[in-house]
Amino acid sequence: MTLSTDELKKRISVLERKASREKRARNTAENQLEKYSLDIYNANLSLKKALASSTQKQLELEYLGRTSSDIASEIPFNEMIANMVMLTGSFCSASYGFYIISKNGKEMTTKPNKTWCLETGWQENNKFKQLINKNLPLIESTIVESWVVSDVENGQTEQNECFNSIFYTNFALTGDRIGWLAFLSKQKDFEKEILSVLMTSREHFLSGIRRRLTDVRILKRNVQLQDSLNKLKKARQQLIQSEKMASLGQLAAGVAHEINNPIAFIHSNMEVLKDYLVDYKVLNAEIKASFDKNTVLEATMYDEICKKIDLSYIEEDSGDLLQSNIEGLDRVKEIVDNLKCFTHAGDEVLVEMSLSECITSALKIAGNMFKYEHKVVNKVEDNCPLIQGNTGQLQQVFVNLFVNAAHAMESSGQLTIDCNITKEGVLIHVTDTGSGMDETTLKQLFTPFFTTKPVGTGTGLGLSVSYAILEAHGAKITVDSKLNFGTTFNILFPVVS
Amino acid sequence: MKGIVFVKFNEFIEELWGDEFWDTLLDEADLPSEGIYTTVETYEDEELFTLIGLVVEKKNISSKDAQFAFGKWVFKELYNAAPPGAHNFKDVFEFLHAVQDFIHVEVKKLNPDALLPEFKFLSESANTLSFHYESPRKLCYFCEGIVHGLAEHTEQKIEVSQSECEHEGDQRCVIEVVKI
């Protein structure tokens, strides 16, 4: 195919334009390639920087994390400080680290006297102590606000090691003592970021120190409190016992009367028995005289003698008298046993127990407070549910309530003890038909040393002690009272489940 | 639009109608880039539309046919330039899924600024696949052409149609591919 000159020219110019476009396109592509290369180089550079920065951050975080966990842990105080020295020294690449305690500007000797070394860890080593002491302001005893970095004076040591800087911080300990963390470093300056990390760990470290010192104080206070609590517990037990003995004092006259009655009739019986013995002696003498005279005892004579002293009556009556004496002595024994049980200062353990038995025995102790004009009605039946309680203490509560009731009903009246089984537990009502109480008295009823009784009659502790005992039993006590009509104490005991 | 489309369009036109025709197109189009295209640059979409518009005018064909033909032709070119791992697909449907899930992901890694069409698959059976073609460039006919090019490559017989098309007044373009 042949082309004309014009066609050829046209063809050439088309190809020239094409070649020019291709060339320019190539230039553009090459420029773009260079730009990509530069971008990659810059990206690489910033990646390297980011890697270095993140490695440093990782080290910082690791340091902060490890110091934090040590500080927050329960490891002993000295171990925590030793770890802080080691971690801080490693983090800052310090050559040596020290923990020093000073008092009144002088270093205190601590055992074991160890130095931390970057290469070998903790070791018995005193070779740099002098250098440290010379460079630390121990004598000023000022607590610094942060880390202090300063140049080391005479940093060249005999061992040909050269230290350029020392950095330290300090903190107050108990007993006017100051703790110092100090490090010798070959570095001259520290980066701002490192110092900021050190500041953070220092704050955390100080709060850890404070917490541990507070913990020790709390522990001491706790021991004191426990001691006080034990003393208080003992005092409370003594108070309960004293109150019991005081209420026994009030019962004493009645108890004496109760014991006196049987003793009086036993005494009278014994007098009669003594006379009967005289009669027996007479009988015996006459029988003996008859033997001496006749060597035999005539039946008629024997009958005569017997009739004379009324032997059959003596025999019958002696039996009755002895039986009456035994019963009288049993009554005395029972009274003494009840008193013994009541006054016994037992432990405070709560066991399964019967309220009915407890109320009956309390009534026996306090019963003599009620006279012939009084009526005592105990409606608590033997099948009343068992409760968790301390018989001795609850007996004391009931005796106290009964004595109060007796005092409230001076001349006559009725004491009723009743029992209701409810969902919440066993509800005991102790009701008297006595003088009752006004609002003012009711308000202060359980206040220690409050009493309406004349001096010498009450301690003013009876109801407050009873209240404390019932509280310890998980029981609730309420009072309904109407002046001149009487009073009811309601006590709700939780039942054994 | 990425430069590779322009470079390939240049080759396509020159292969069909010669470099003089391409030279004429550039001369008349008076483009900002002056037709100096490299695969690494990005150029205005409008330049391609202007060039296609001139082809349509000069060769008296429809824009749809022009886009379709270029799409069908360009598949093998793009296939050769596709990232490693894009050459393991032997089925049209499988490949179309890979375009969305793999090839476009790889393209984005090299060209984070590339604006790529989205394929949202609507339904699929053994022989029919329907997907929503979503691109602000609205080059759905070009896409139809590419699918045909793909079928040629996989040696499968297919029919491609659009049940909905933005150029026909619909809200979106839905391309349906049926294996025959």
Model description:
The complex is a heterodimer of chains A (497) and B (180). With 497 residues, chain A is an alpha+beta fold. Chain A has three domains: 73-190, 2-Layer Sandwich (Beta-Lactamase); 250-343; 351-493, Heat Shock Protein 90. Helix content of chain A is 57%, strand content 16%. Chain B folds into two domains: 3-61; 68-179, H-NOX domain (Alpha-Beta Complex). Chain B has a four-stranded antiparallel sheet, covered by helices on one side. In chain B, strand 1 (118-124) and strand 2 (128-134) form a beta hairpin. In chain B, helix 1 crosses helix 2, helix 1 (3-29) packs across helix 3 and helix 3 (63-81) packs across helix 5. The longest helix of chain B has 27 residues, at 3-29. The model of chain B has no long low-confidence stretch (mean pLDDT 92). Chains A and B meet through helix 1 of A and helix 1 of B.
SSE topology sketch:
The complex is a heterodimer of chains A (497) and B (180).
Chain A: H1 5-72, H2 77-91, E1 96-103, E2 106-107, E3 114-117, E4 121-124, H3 129-135, E5 148-151, E6 165-172, E7 177-185, H4 192-294, H5 299-309, H6 311-343, E8 351-353, H7 355-366, E9 374-378, E10 387-389, H8 391-408, E11 413-421, E12 426-432, H9 439-443, H10 462-472, E13 476-482, E14 486-493
Helix pairs in contact in A: 1-2, 1-4, 4-5, 4-6, 4-8, 4-10, 6-7, 7-8, 8-10
Chain B: H1 3-29, H2 45-59, H3 63-81, H4 92-110, E1 118-124, E2 128-134, H5 140-154, E3 158-164, E4 173-179
Antiparallel strand pairs in B: 1-2, 2-4, 3-4
Helix pairs in contact in B: 1-2, 1-3, 3-5
